[in-house]
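Something for you to look into today, if you have time. Could you write out one complete protein record for me, on any chain you like? The space below this message is yours for that.
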Amino acid sequence: MGKIEWAMWANEQALASGLILLAGGIVGVAGQFRGWEFAAYAVAAGVFVCLLEYPRSKRAKGTSVERKGQYCFTVCVKAFGPLTRNYYVRAFLHAAICVPGGFMLATVLGCVCLGIASLIYLAAAIRGEHWEPILPRKDVRKPVAESIKNPPQNPPPRPPPEMRRKPAKDLESSAYDNPIAVADE
């Protein structure tokens, strides 16, 4: 059986929970619910979690697919070094961020989802995974084969080599001999 890469699942869960936390915070602030200050915090926390979790990590197998526009966020996350690369730090950071969201009904769902993402990050950290940036790779062009450099001169269908026309040095010898007799009517 293949090894499960928990960090990939944690990244998707944390990104979705950041969006849910952001949406719940917007609802709480717009509705001016009691304790709307927690909703304002949830808006800021949701934006922070989304910015932190948007860049995907490189997978161990190398079959990583980056998100659109990920490179600029990757540079920002990479700049913080071991603080963002270590999944123990991310697990405890997400656990701490999700606590104030539990005090308001509009942000509880985002809080629970972020707590689950925190547990998944903790599982990834225990298994020894860490964040690796997906950097743009330079495409190495392979040399073009000779057959591609010199395409065929005559269009298909091509006759077998023994039936092909000879070069036109001698007009009589280069004429094509039809093996099937043709009769004039």
The radius of gyration is 32 Å. The helical segments are 6-30, 36-53, 70-79, 82-85, 87-98, 108-126, 146-149. DSSP finds seven helices and no strands in the chain.
